[in-house]
Every structure is written in structure tokens, then in C-alpha cells.
Amino acid sequence: MNIQLLKTTDDQRTAFKTCTQIGTDINAVPTDDMSELQPKIVINYDSTYLAANYVYIGLFGKYYKIDKKSVTIGKKIVLECTIDAVMSYFYSDAQTGKKGIDQCKITAVRNGGIGQPTKIQDTKFPVLPNEQELMQTVATNVSLSNTAEYSYIITVIGGAANGS
Amino acid sequence: MAVNTNIYGASDQWRNAAFYDKFYPNKKANFGDNTSKLSDGVTKGKLSYNEPIDKSLSYCGLGTECALSHVRYVQNVSNTATIIDSQDRFQTNFLFGEITTQTGMDGNYNYSQLSDLKYQKAWQANFDSDTWWSNNKNKLVEPYTSIHPKSVVFLIYVIAVNSTFTNSINVTLSEYRTQYTTYPNISQVYIVPFMNDSLATENSPSRNQFGAAGNITSNNRQGFCLGLLDEYEIPSRNFNMYSYQLTWSRIVMGNLYQTDTSERSTATAIIYVPENVGEHFKYQRVNIYDYYYIRTYIEYYDGIFDEIIKTVACFGLYFTEKTNVAQHGLFTDNDMYIGILDSNGIGHGEYLRGADTATAPQNNYTDMQQSGYDYTKEVDKTKYINNTQFYGTWSSNAFTKMYVLTAAQVSALANELYTAVSAAPAGEEIERYNQSVFLTQNPIDCIISLKKFPMSLPYSAAVPMKLGSYTTTVNAAPLLYSTGIYSFTFSNSSDNGLYPWFNNSFLDYEPYTKCELTIPFCGTVEIPTTYLHDYDTIDVKLIVDFITGACTAYIQARNITIDSVSGECAVSLPVNGIQSATLDSQIHSAATARNKSALTNGLGLIGGLAAVGIGIATGGIGTAVIGGIAALTSGANMITQDKNIEYELQHMQVPMKQVSGASGAINQSYDMRCKMRITRPKISGSYDAEVYANTVGFACLINTTVSSLSGLTVGDINLDGLDASDVEKQLIKNAFASGVIL
Fold first, then answer.
1. What's the pLDDT tens digit per position in A53-85?
2. CA distances in angstroms from B249 to A3, B35, B88, B228, listed in the order given
3. Counting C-beta atoms within 10 Å of the first and last residue's C-beta, which end of chain B has fewer, N or C?
4. ipTM of this predicted complex?
């Protein structure tokens, strides 16, 4: 079966990693009954192949992370791989109508693309626990004052003069 | 808004107004070649007859509290005086100007309006002839383009008629206060400008009346005029009319006493009425010497004096109701007022008086156009800010009377008491004399209470104060209203709400950010921060009961009350030994009870008690605190009541009591400003938004498609329709649960 040896420097969490192919398509054989999820394959030795950390297996049409590489007697390289399910199923295929992860619905509870905190409370956000900033605004459109002139009210017995 | 220089000329070309004040100059329009009349404006191509006059002349808007914003059209309909239409505007635009009589014109200029409105437009060149009674005198008006706020003091006049309509008076508003019972029918209220003459010095005003437009009896005399610039739609029985009402008069309320309808039966009386005139606006068709007239007037009612003052206050200038004050009064004279404009430059009848006028922003203007009023701006009525409003007419009864005094008057009254007692006739027992005059053997017992308030109080004209049946020599002003509303406003005109948001995030809300209002006399109230973000104005309306001294503050967001808190703002001053002893006893008992309660319940003394202790030392504590402690009863839930008391003491701002009303040495440490305090969190100094975004991601709740997101994403994904094994799907779900970079 044909495989492609790939190298990526992207973060492991990247959904669809950017890869560069090492060499050309390679003919590989399984070492035993080959699992689709964790295949173990053998290829002919080439020193350049040791730089690969990802492999695309055309038989399954999926991408795999190379967990372990072994060089054996007889100038072979054994690759022990684990499926990268997110990368394998990420893109939809418009021609075949095959749905990918990119078209799936998600309820995101964290996202870096927003760029700044939202109104959803974030207990991980680095707020200093014991420090606060104090601001004060004073309304100045009304003046109350102890020095106001006509500010005493006296209640007395007796009416006022002149009917006032 | 600046005056439109394309129409009224460049500001450096404006001409000096007549009666030029050397200290506070006013300017009038220059339409070109040093011409200023409105007719010159037409000649120079700047104005057109039958078209509205540009309203940028209006340096402020006259609010709904001004009578000029409420127009009633009265006409003879089927031999009955009928209000055929009315207009009530939220704001009215106007001009001030002057007018110079011309050679050949008759001096009998009694027109405050165009008396005959059968023509299409009021602002027009002439009527059907060029005789004096039909020539449009509005042509001669020279509009003012710049008015210095200190250049003029308006004196308010009233023309009133007796109940039989046989006699009338034309007096100042102050004089009318003692004559309204004889002349209860107000036909006109007008304002006369007083401006400095050559004898005036900077610290000694000498003002004279600027010639009245209705009082010119010779040629080449200057008269002052007020004109309205808003369009009027006046329906008529026979034809449609649309008038630009340029009155060229100084009338602010009412109008002509009567309108001649004998020859021009379709004449319409245009009357300006106060906002709350209601049924007190009267209109009749009357026959006098075989001629029919429409008679209109405002029947006196409680509150009309206040309406008159509010109407004049809407102009935002200095005014008074006394002649001597208009002539020689300083701007801080006790009987000098200045109208206050709101933040939109609209007058709503608010004013400052006496020494308080010094705080009016107009004192820093050189031109009233600095009010910022823009007649083209549509004002959001929900943002109307009412700084001070009084209501609750207070009438005396036969047994008690409430007066508003100054500190000096309190002293004078105290001295008067000795004079009162010594007035006993020779040979008569003092006790018998006192009993007959004061209804008590101790004259001081005539004084029921004396309270000090932290604000100027509303009062009517001063009268000789009476104690019992004894008339003192102290002229005291009766309390005019029982309630006052003092509004504090926190506003932010930006789109971001009341204060700058902190990332517009959860950090701007509880529990991270908190907002408290400290309201004078009432205490501290926490308000939800959501009101700071969703509304751009928070108002605190402090309602003060002048009768009891209690106050309640209502916190409003865009006129919706969200919380309230009460307190006491008046300090009761003991006026005799019994009252003082009783007050101190109450304070001591309250403090003792509180201490006893706290110790009994093992709660210990709280900080609030220190305030009580201080109160005792200076002899002052609010009655609300006493009331709260008095509620403590034996056998009740001591813990609950202690908590209540603790709350009251901690949230009560205890007013400091002054020892003597006449001492003047009042403690200023008590802050009477309304304050908004916002506490908000601090973020770690090492915080980096990019790092955080790529390593943790910002908390969110977004329901969407994966392709619409970017960056580190943690969430629950729905894999329906994905052609993968269950194990693979679980691997995908696990990956998104821990974070996938899209």
C-alpha cells in the first residue's frame, strides 16, 4: 500500500496540521493484522524518513501520528502510528457530499479567536484577588450647603399678618 | 449653536446694540452695509417675506414650563368666544431685538401681535395699505445676535383687571403680590429689560429701563422686543392660515386685554398660557359700547406666581420682580434670580436666587450662545433633567405658621422675644399679659420648632412675623412649598453607557465590579452595574419634606425607579431648656439601649456607636437614629433588631448639629454631594491577551458551526452525519473537550 511520510511543526492540538511530504509516495507493508486505528507498518530504510512525524495511509484515507519509529535488522523502518481523527475527518468533501467536522455544530465554551474576555464569567482569568481599583464620580448639578441663606424653618403659634 | 453668519453677517461685523452696555456689550445683525432691520435682510437677499426667519438667533429653547410654549387661539364662533386650536410645544425658539421708530409713524403702538390674521403670512412686508395700523412693524425689528448674560436684568410686570373689568393696574410682580385680591384677572405679563447706563460702574449697577416697544410716543426712539420664531398653524373658519409669529413685543403670558373683532370678525386672539393654567384661562365675547370683543385673561390661582417666575426663568437670564433690584441690585442680591438651562440649552423654569446665582454657568459666558442650544437637535424628552422642583402648596392655618428665615433673622427673633415681653402695659402682671398675648406664660413656647436645612428653601413675600397675637418687627417669608425635589444626575453622552467599560466583559458586572451611590442624608445604596451599561443616565431625586425634615431619595435609570432610600436632612435646634434636655435624654437613652443590647447578645460594640457617641458630644443626632433604637423592645428577637440597628447606624449619615442658628460656624465636614463609587478588579500585570487566547481561550457560550470559529476552541461538538466509527467520534469529542486549534 502507498503511504506518504509527512512532517509538521504545528501544535498537537491543531485541527488540520500543515505538513510537508518527505520524499515521494512510499510502498509499505503491514507487520501483522493492521488496525485502522493504530496501524503498524514497515518501509525500506532511508535516513531521510526518520524525520517524519506524520503519515498518510491512502488505503484508509486517513492521517496518523507516528508514535514510534524503529530501525530493524535488514534495513527496515517500523512505524507505529495512532489515528489523528480530527485531522482525518476535518474537511468536508463538496464533490462527494461527505460531511466533515468543519460543518458540524458546536457549543464552544472557550475560544481564543474572540481576542478578549466576554460577558461569560471566566474563573481562569488572571484577576488579582485582593486588589481593586476605585473610581468616584460626583454629581455637581445640585448644590446643597450648610451655608445656604434662607435655610431655617421656624414653626410658630399664630397666623401671619395681612392675609399672607 | 452659533448664529448663522451667512444670514446675519460675520460676527466681527455685527453692530453694537442700542443702549450699549460698556461692560457687557450686546450685538445685533448686520445684513450688509451696516443694516440690521429684518426688512434690510430681505433687501439684501438674506431673508424672505413669508418664509421662516432663521432660528439660530435663539440662544436657548424655552421649555414647556414657559407660557410661550403653550398657545391658545381664541376666536368668535357663532357669537361665542371659542378656543379654535391650541399648540403645546416642548420647546420654543425666539429672538430678542430692538426697534427704532421711523418718521411719519404714529406713536400709538399698542400691538403685541398682528391683530388681523386674515392674510396668508404674518411675517410679510405690508398689508393692504401703508397706513400705520396695517404696516407690518416687524420689518423694523433688529435682531440681537449676541447677548451678554450680564447685560440685562428683566423686571416682571403684570397688567391685571378687577373683577368687574372696570379698573386695571400695571405693576411689578412684587407689587402685584399685595394687590391680586383686588385685581384677580391677569390679562398680561411682560418683561422689561434694564440695562446699565453711563452712571454705572463695575461694582455699582445703574440700570435704566430700555425703551418699551409698546411705549413709544415719538420718532427715533428705541424699543426692546421679543419675537417668537416657530411656525404656527392657525385654523380658521373661512380659510387656512399659517403664520410666523413674530410678536415684536415683550409679552410672556396672556396677551392683549381684548381684541377688536367688530370690523374684522375673523380676528384670532393668540394667547400664551402657563402649562398648568387649566380652567383658570378665561375667554369671553363681550359687548362694550356696541362693539364686540374677545376678552381673555388668567384668573388668579395658587401657583400663578410660580408659573410666572418659571416662564421668565426659561430665558436663562437675570430677572427680578422688584424695581430697585432691577435698577441697582447686584447679581447676588436676595431678590435677584437667574434662570438655569439644562444640558441641551433648554430652560425648564429652574432658577437660582440670591447668593446662589454666583454658581450659574452663565456667569462664565460672554455670549448666551455658549449655552450650546441647537434648535435643529431633536431633544429626547426622557432625558429631561429637572434640577430642582418644588410642589405642595403650603397654606397656613389659624393656629400655626411656618416661616423661612436666615441666620440673622433667627438672632433678631431671639432678641425680639425680650422686646415682646417688655411690651406688657405698666402695672399688668407679666404672666397675665403673656398668657393673653402668647397663650402661654413663656413667649418662647410660641415657637414650636426650629429646623436647619442644608439648602435654600422656597418662600413667598416677607410679612411681619406674628407670635401668638403679637406682631414682631421681624419680616419673615412664609414657607411657599412643602416639598422640594433635588435631582442629582450622572450621565455620559458616549455610546458606551455611564462609565468606560472594562473590556465590556464579565469584569464589568457583579461580583467583580460594584457600584454604590452615596446620597446625602440617606446613606449608601448599591445599584446593579447593568444600569451603568444599558442606560446613559442615572438620576437621584432627593425629595425633601420641609415640614418634617425627612427625605427620600429615588434612584432612577432613564426615569424608571430602581431603588429608594430614606433619611433625615434637617437638624432640629432646641429653642428652650425643656426641648434641649429632652433631646439629650433621648440621645443618651438610645445609646445606652444600643450598648446594652449589643453586650447582652454578645455582639460587642459596633462602629456605628462611635457615631452616636460623637453625636452626644456635640449635641446632635438625627431623629431617625432615635426612632430605630426606640423600636428595640424587650422580648423581641434581639439579634434581628441588633442587625436592623446596625444597618441603620452604619448607613445613616448623622447630620452635625449646630449650637446656635446665628453663629455661622457650621461644621462643613459633612459631605452633601451625591457620589457614585465604582470598584472594579485589577488584572495581573503579566496578562497577555494573545498568550491567554492560545493557551486557555476566553470563556464564552457560542452555538455555531466549527468553520465559523478560529483559534483555540473548547466545546461540545455534535457529530451527527459524520461517517466515522464510534471510537473515532469519541476521539474527536475528546479532542474538542480538551481544546482544538482551528
1. 999 999 899 999 999 999 998 899 999 999 999
2. 100, 21, 20, 10
3. N
4. 0.89
Which three-class secondary structure state does DSSP give residue A57?
A: strand
Tell me the chain A residues in contact with residue B507 when contact means C-beta distances shorter than 8 Å: 117, 125, 127
The reported pLDDT for the residue numbered B720 is 94
pLDDT tens track for B642-665 = 444 444 444 433 333 222 222 222
CA gap B141, B645 in Å, rounded: 68
Q: Is the dihedral of CA B309, B322, B18, B213 positive or negative?
A: positive
Q: In chain B, what's the furthest Cα-to-Cα distance?
A: 122
Residues in chain A with CB shorter than 8 Å from the CB of B479 are: 153
The pLDDT of residue B671 is 66
- When the pLDDT of each residue in chain B is averaged and rounded to a whole number, the result is 74
Q: Are the CB atoms for B363 and A117 separated by under 8 Å?
A: no
B512 close to A (CB below 8 A): yes
- Cell numbers of B407, please? 441666620
Label residue B582 by pLDDT band (50, 70, 90): very low
Q: In Å, how far from its chain's centre is CA B170?
A: 28
The residue that leads in pLDDT, A14 or B518, is A14
How does B591-622 read in b/e, with b if 16+ C-beta sit within 10 Å? beebeebbeeeeeeeeebbebbeebeeebbbb
Neighbours of B237 (CB within 10 A): 13
Contact present, B401 and A158 (Cβ < 8 Å): yes
User: Residues 168..207 of B with a Cβ closer than 8 Å to A: which?
Assistant: 178, 181
Contact A131, B682 (CB under 8 A): yes
Do B247 and B225 contact (CB within 8 A), yes or no?
yes
- Looking at residue B418, its amino acid is Y
User: Cα-Cα-Cα-Cα dihedral of A119, A125, A127, A128, to 10°?
Assistant: 160
Which B residues 607-646 touch A at CB under 8 Å? none
Q: Of B115, B378, B47, B92, nearest to B228 (Cα)?
A: B92
Burial of A65 (0-12, 13-18, 19+ CB in 10 A): middle
Tens of pLDDT, residue by residue over B353-395, are 888 888 888 998 899 999 989 998 865 443 333 344 545 544 4
Residue B139: how many other CB atoms lie within 10 Å: 21
Angle between helices B607-618 and B638-651 (to 10 degrees): 60
